[in-house]
Amino acid sequence: MAKTVAAFGEVMMRLQVPGYDLLSQASTLNYSFSGSGVNVVSALTRYGHTGYLVSRLPANPVGDAAVTYLLKLGIAPTYLMKGGNYVGMYFLENGFGVRPSRVTYSNRQESSFNTAPEGTYDFDSIAKPMDAIHFCGITLAMNDGVRKQMKELAQAVKQQGGLVVFDCNYRPSLWGEGGYEKAKPHYEDMLELADIVMMNEKDAMFTLGMTTTQESRQAQLEELIPEVARRFDISVVAGTHRSINGDNTHSLKGFMYKKHTFTYANPLSFSVYDRIGAGDAFTSGIIHGELEGFDTEQTVAFASAAGMLAHTVVGDTPMSSERDIFRAMSESARDVER
Amino acid sequence: MAKTVAAFGEVMMRLQVPGYDLLSQASTLNYSFSGSGVNVVSALTRYGHTGYLVSRLPANPVGDAAVTYLLKLGIAPTYLMKGGNYVGMYFLENGFGVRPSRVTYSNRQESSFNTAPEGTYDFDSIAKPMDAIHFCGITLAMNDGVRKQMKELAQAVKQQGGLVVFDCNYRPSLWGEGGYEKAKPHYEDMLELADIVMMNEKDAMFTLGMTTTQESRQAQLEELIPEVARRFDISVVAGTHRSINGDNTHSLKGFMYKKHTFTYANPLSFSVYDRIGAGDAFTSGIIHGELEGFDTEQTVAFASAAGMLAHTVVGDTPMSSERDIFRAMSESARDVER
Amino acid sequence: MAKTVAAFGEVMMRLQVPGYDLLSQASTLNYSFSGSGVNVVSALTRYGHTGYLVSRLPANPVGDAAVTYLLKLGIAPTYLMKGGNYVGMYFLENGFGVRPSRVTYSNRQESSFNTAPEGTYDFDSIAKPMDAIHFCGITLAMNDGVRKQMKELAQAVKQQGGLVVFDCNYRPSLWGEGGYEKAKPHYEDMLELADIVMMNEKDAMFTLGMTTTQESRQAQLEELIPEVARRFDISVVAGTHRSINGDNTHSLKGFMYKKHTFTYANPLSFSVYDRIGAGDAFTSGIIHGELEGFDTEQTVAFASAAGMLAHTVVGDTPMSSERDIFRAMSESARDVER
Amino acid sequence: MAKTVAAFGEVMMRLQVPGYDLLSQASTLNYSFSGSGVNVVSALTRYGHTGYLVSRLPANPVGDAAVTYLLKLGIAPTYLMKGGNYVGMYFLENGFGVRPSRVTYSNRQESSFNTAPEGTYDFDSIAKPMDAIHFCGITLAMNDGVRKQMKELAQAVKQQGGLVVFDCNYRPSLWGEGGYEKAKPHYEDMLELADIVMMNEKDAMFTLGMTTTQESRQAQLEELIPEVARRFDISVVAGTHRSINGDNTHSLKGFMYKKHTFTYANPLSFSVYDRIGAGDAFTSGIIHGELEGFDTEQTVAFASAAGMLAHTVVGDTPMSSERDIFRAMSESARDVER
Amino acid sequence: MAKTVAAFGEVMMRLQVPGYDLLSQASTLNYSFSGSGVNVVSALTRYGHTGYLVSRLPANPVGDAAVTYLLKLGIAPTYLMKGGNYVGMYFLENGFGVRPSRVTYSNRQESSFNTAPEGTYDFDSIAKPMDAIHFCGITLAMNDGVRKQMKELAQAVKQQGGLVVFDCNYRPSLWGEGGYEKAKPHYEDMLELADIVMMNEKDAMFTLGMTTTQESRQAQLEELIPEVARRFDISVVAGTHRSINGDNTHSLKGFMYKKHTFTYANPLSFSVYDRIGAGDAFTSGIIHGELEGFDTEQTVAFASAAGMLAHTVVGDTPMSSERDIFRAMSESARDVER
Amino acid sequence: MAKTVAAFGEVMMRLQVPGYDLLSQASTLNYSFSGSGVNVVSALTRYGHTGYLVSRLPANPVGDAAVTYLLKLGIAPTYLMKGGNYVGMYFLENGFGVRPSRVTYSNRQESSFNTAPEGTYDFDSIAKPMDAIHFCGITLAMNDGVRKQMKELAQAVKQQGGLVVFDCNYRPSLWGEGGYEKAKPHYEDMLELADIVMMNEKDAMFTLGMTTTQESRQAQLEELIPEVARRFDISVVAGTHRSINGDNTHSLKGFMYKKHTFTYANPLSFSVYDRIGAGDAFTSGIIHGELEGFDTEQTVAFASAAGMLAHTVVGDTPMSSERDIFRAMSESARDVER
Question: Which of F213, F248, F253 lies closest to F101 in space, CA to CA?
């Protein structure tokens, strides 16, 4: 049954060099608009839910282009506030084989979202209809104003009985030196408020400062995640382990911890066309499974297949329907559909 | 020695989304014109034969663009009749890795070809110079008018002493529910008229309703094809077995049954750039071998290499010369030619 | 104040040859989705209204692309029904100077919209919230099923107290020979239901069969339009006179007849980038003026400026905001805005 | 009635910078193949004639691309010989307004055409079916080998009773210093052989060294052309006077001298999209009129309209049908055709 | 004789929507790098001088792309310092006819140039070889740090005996409310240091607060500019009066005040392809004339023709050689150069 | 520490069909300018050296575009002489999988470089500042004039104490039949002059006519190269062994012979995007290592990684910085850098 979901987060303009050229070789860029929250909510609208983004954009041609793009992604514009002057941007140069892709950010601290004054959003009325809302650790890295808004909105949704989803998504370059210490209290605040958390053992160790004597990733995971869930009273913790293979394919192994039990998806290996945003597709799958009451096996398999398909699609934002994902769960590589 | 060949069939407009975008992401399409008969005849002109297409196109800018495209493919325009209003179209979205390609058809029942009234074509004069003519099961799926024309033209060419080639090419989506029963009598009519038939064991089982207790594809093939050849008095039956490998390469194993003997080509494995039309390249190789009097081993190896190369070229229509194919038969992956 | 508006009409896929190439010269097409109703409603959403399209699209990749495009245009998807198999298409080749542009249609009679069975739309619930609804003579030319739906929906909106807008838009090629006679009763039905009608003296003479001894366009207009308004009890009749100048600029003179009085806009002359859909921009301006309670001078000036700006924008669908149009009403050609 | 026509001439590869960039700004080129003879013959095939090009191209991918392009233009490949190594090329940078377009040639003396050895072409068998053949002063500027072939072929066609058409087309940069003296004897040879000649008063003065005391172009024309026609026994002399207007439009006034009488077309003024090859369109119109037996007024009007339309089409080669040209003769600038 | 010139200023990234699409319609952008100083110096290198830019760019892929672009423009990289994080950007949407072009800036206060700390540049060693250096009022609008650097560098060049060029170029949007008062003391400082000043009567009235009772632009100019020149001891004051004509062509009238005398260029009218940066082309012409010792008439005619040609070339940066400009001074619109 | 380096060689225009189309399928080309010397010097400027090219280009738009491109590649224009008429060109069609890439040359014997008369270059002043200079066997294949210039310049640099680098790079198609015999004396002359030589065992056997009874490539190498080094008194001989794997990846094993010892790099395997010019990247790495005084292990590892990365970048010319290459030496395939 269709639910009402939202995300709180920044809209970024992605400026991508076409093909495999470097920025100093090319003369054109492809642009689109995305963001962790954009990606998760847009994916959820493709599964049939009604999706909102709570954000702020400038009243100028760049802001208009962002709104138009979000409409195209199926996002309702109700909570897109107008104000400020800038949209955060990043440049993407595609890697090839042994040459990695590169992302270069423009100044996002001055963006309309990151400079939104108090009172920009009416959190109570936004929270009222929400069955679930998504937050992301990237937003937490921005500044005090945004952190305050983020926590207030999470609080408001929680009070109304909506699910609070938090994706840890720690980005070292955003927090700078000594970042883990700066980040820790804010992460703890969000974990206190969250019902569903996207994280793995690295977040527990680095951001929360937990320790383990285990050596394998899985053993570390299985020791630390239950502890986190207990400490912060989180119903669902989910995430993936990614590895990059010698032939440039990626492998993804999804997991989900719920009711004291770990469930693992079958590991998936696949060629990658556009890696950015694939984690958000996984998140959207976990949220969808929880909203729809899938059993745990189905949820983590659905989320993993959603993540896998997102690697095969152009752009940050997942484009698969629920039907596409179910089909991918049951099939192997196939010939043309005609 | 150059021969005169023709095909009877529809010209379709292919509208392809560039790169790996979906139709709902992109804003441009690449277009070209093709069709099973177009592909086979164009390939044969590249081997040095004179090639015609017997078809009907509208006298409007879309029809003119189709004619121009066929000219570019080396096809003589003599038997391209003018009339009707529409060209059949299909949209192609390229898959990537685990995400399959998708084909979406426009309405082709109303196309100039499929609405050609009786008397559109002068079959006797068309048949007169032909050394061989190609028909395809896709055309057989269209409607009674087209089926009647197809059989009349096959009859006329057979009477003049030309070779009749029939590619079974059963497409379930075109025949709809209960399709095999509807299709069977028409397939039997064409098999009665044909000298060279492209088919494999599945056609025998599903379309002709034959049964076998064998379990492997090859054993089924070797039981059923000789039976078909005998029953319909067919000199050559040829086809391929395709498999899709874990690393997204395809493997193709060509076979040919002639004078009570099966000949198999060495299986070929290769990366795929554009899969559509590759079967027609294989067919063109079988026809060329038969017209030129190649021995069976050479014919099936040539057809397989033609099929393989067609997977590496943009568009439905094969672009390789006879020399390109002979080189591919004798060589492995190589460095730049300079 | 924001109102709720809708249009009933077909969504067409526009396939445009880039630049000034002919279809037989090029190899790529730009595509978008439009339609008279799409254009009018999308323009109205840019002026701040909530806009719906009442239509039907196939549940396949082409239909999905159409829905995505309408979302991007700001149109709410609530009344876009799913069903049928095809989207109507047209090819556009841009003219240059003395060489006119050419439009070639694909078969639209088989489109999802034109084959929608009875019961596809729930007219009463659609009509309930509507302050205004737009219909177009192009739809009237399609077939009996569509005509019936069109009149039922107009009736339903009228009963709920919404404004019915009808744009005569007679297209000779769609009605065929003897078209005026076939069209007349249907036009009369729609005129009986309409509050605002887009037409000029030619519609009165050719479609309604009225006669006049006047010779100039303006005299004919001023004799016939009041008669039409009286006979069908129409509050507003509006339209334009277009002329094409020697230097390839176009001139447009908008008029509006309301409360027994003609009001004319100042004639506008301008260079043309994309002429298609500009009439719909004019219509959107008239509707906006009436919904907002502009005085007659302002309404017809606003509509004319909206029409003029639509000639300078890529695509069928107007892209100007209310502010852009007001600015164009008050200014002449200007330097870069920076 | 369809006639059989040919041209003798080089095929050039045109490498055009897209839009209005300079070669040192851009990174892509559009390419096509053309040539004076290509343009004239291709235009004639659009009017319904069968057209050949007598030329020589290398047996490599560039030569193959040229042949494919000529096929697309409707030219029969029968007399396209294979041999040599290179195709002549030129780069085109589009001017804008006061900035003129620029053409830069690659080395064409080494092209397959310009290095064709004696015996490359079988002139007698080529000449046999020809109703008319076209030659151009550009070819005459190449080298002794080509000049000899040109004159032999003209002789052969004349003997068979075909019309010999010669377009003077003197290009100063190809003949170098003292060019008029070098060129004169060769021009005289061709004029002796020609039935239809494209030239104007400047050719008479500069290439043939004739003198006049008249000052206006028209008076010079009317004094010199009859003298040329008498001296070389030419049935038809035709040409144009071009002027470039202040608003960047061009004006063209076509003339034709036949049976001791000058006939002038109405001067045409128009915007220019692609100026190159427009003279060849005019020539094709004169040849068509003569082959079809149009009266003189109709021929020169048809040729002028053909020339005008060629300025509005991308590429060197005219793309208009006979019907397009007749329509342009009877109409002024018009709205979209739909 | 080749001189050594420099400019001090920011490098901006220009992100331009191709064709006439809006940013909310398109999906690709063309990018380049420019700036008032970049444009002037690059133009001067095309006239044969050695040119430097004194600026600061980040050590990341965007900064690298900027440096590469400046190299391509002929600018020596010696004084391009590395540091900071961002490059200022602006988006450009091309207008068409009555619809004006739009420029939207990203946040440039945080750019590498605008955040360069004291000591970034070694002004004395930079100043030493310079025959002339260019500054611009846009830079003056940035912040105190940049203003200080600008004045120090001007001082250093003046002391070494180099010419100081200052282009007033007041941009209201950069100074904000009450901008003229804020700007005045800084403009006065720069005028004190300058030898050549680009300005017109509006700068005198608005920025310097001078008054006049004259009404025509020319009379105001002729009253105020001599006063400015005297007061600040400036040898050359030059500028243009631009008007936009009804047919979208622009007219430009250049003037130059030197040794108590006004010299005017013939007014030029022309079609405009890319208006941005054309003022810098005019400036480059004035500097070139002064460096080369042209007489006043020649200098102002050369500068005007340079400005005119810059309107016909893609991008902000002039691309004409000295020879192109001399040719444009002596000729009217011409046919293809071949 | 930054050194001063140069190369002597031709600048070629590369005209590449985009994607995987054949030249007879496409209509656009991407162009760039390169050459063995261009590639080596440009790579060295990315490592921080100052780089020159000694060559000759025409004073026309094609020559201007070449100069602009070389500037963009970081090459100083001081020794680019102006003269002659043509730039050598080659067409590149990308292969896919089993279909090899194809290179087709235009006539380069007539290029500005290959027709440079004696006295074009002032070798003594060019040689003076050079720490190293690069020559290539491709240039040696051109003609006597160029060979003479090449040897004179090598002599001049050697006398000034600069390093002479010679890359054997024997191209059979350039020398024609009996090429090895023709080439041998010229290769011997260059080897006498060279300090660093790029070659492997095949050059020793085929070009120098040496023999060996060894069978493996490595054993042949280790027998022949020391002999060559001794005979011609060469300090460093380096090169690679390339193999193409079944999955279309390439493997590269770099070697370096110095002070009587062979050093081998770890073999590298990688996917290939653009193979052309990768050998020049390896060469640039060897030169850089020698100029910077790297130890042998580091030099050959650096050169190999430079070669590997060049296969992943668009165009002939390497684009990696020293830092990129060091990172590639220490890392395996990685996720996005952000």
Answer: F248
Q: Quick one: pLDDT at residue D333? A: 46
Average pLDDT over residues B6-25: 97
Query: Residue A188: its pLDDT value, please?
Result: 97
DSSP H stretches of helix in chain C: 36-46, 61-72, 123-127, 137-140, 144-160, 172-175, 179-193, 201-202, 217-232, 278-292, 296-310, 322-330
- Summarize pLDDT for E288-331 with one digit per residue, the tens: 999 999 999 999 999 999 999 999 998 999 999 999 999 999 86
* Residue E58 CA to its chain's centroid (Å): 23
Q: How many residues does chain C have?
A: 338
Nearest to B246 by CA among F333, F311, F100, A251: A251
Overall average pLDDT of the F145-172 stretch: 97
- Smallest CA–CA distance, residue E272 to chain C, in Å, is 11
Given a cut of 70, is residue A334 above it in pLDDT? Answer: no
CA distance A193 to A134: 12
Nearest residue, CB atoms, E334 vs list D96, D171, D244: D244
Retrieve residue D177's tokens. Answer: 């210093």
Residues of D in contact with C18 (CB under 8 A): none
Give every CB contact of residue D178 below 8 A, 6+ residues apart in sequence.
Answer: none
Q: Does C72 sit within 8 Å of A74, measured CB to CB?
A: no
Both tokens assigned to D24: 């040192």
* C-alpha distance from C101 to closest chain B C-alpha (Å): 12
For tokens 């936009």, name the residue: E244
Helix (H) or strand (E) holding E141: none
What value does the mean pLDDT take over residues B181-207? 96
Identity at B4, one-letter amino acid code: T
Rounded distance between C-alpha atoms, residue E161 and residue E166, angstroms: 16
Written as six digits, the tokens of E299 are 């200098």
* Cβ neighbours of residue C198 closer than 8 Å, sequence gap 6 or more: C165, C166, C167, C168, C169, C237, C238, C239, C279, C282, C283, C286
Q: For residues F130 and E89, what is the distance between their CA atoms, to the nearest angstrom?
A: 40
> C132 Cβ partners below 8 Å, 6+ apart?
C3, C5, C6, C157, C162, C163, C164, C165, C287, C290, C291
pLDDT above 60: residue A332: no
Rounded mean pLDDT, D92-103: 92
Q: Which of C23, C70, C317 to mutate to test the interface with B (most CBs of B within 10 A)?
A: C23
Length of chain D: 338
A106 within 8 A of E106, measured Cβ to Cβ: yes
Report the gap between the CA of B95 and the closest CA in chain C (Å).
Answer: 13
User: In B, which residues are within 8 Å of C85 by CB distance?
Assistant: 107
Residue B229 has pLDDT above 50, yes or no: yes
Q: Which two three-digit tokens encode residue B179?
A: 């399709």
Per-residue three-class SS string for D212-229 = CCCCCHHHHHHHHHHHHH
- Looking at this protein, which amino acid is placed at residue E43? A
What mean pLDDT, rounded, does chain B reach? Answer: 94
Residue among B81, B39, B45 nearest B63 (CA): B81
Check: CB of residue E198 under 8 Å from CB of residue E167: yes
Mean pLDDT for the stretch of residues B198-223: 95
- Find the helix or strand (DSSP H, E) in which C205 lies: none
Complex ipTM value: 0.92
Question: The whole model's pTM is what?
Answer: 0.94
What residues contact residue F37 under an 8 Å CB cut-off, 6+ apart? F7, F8, F9, F10, F53, F54, F55, F134, F135, F136, F139
Per the CB < 8 A criterion, the answer to whether A54 and A7 are in contact is yes
Question: What residues have CB less than 8 Å from E201, skipping those under 6 apart?
Answer: E212, E217, E220, E221, E223, E224, E225
For the domain made up of A1-121, the CATH class stated in words is: alpha beta
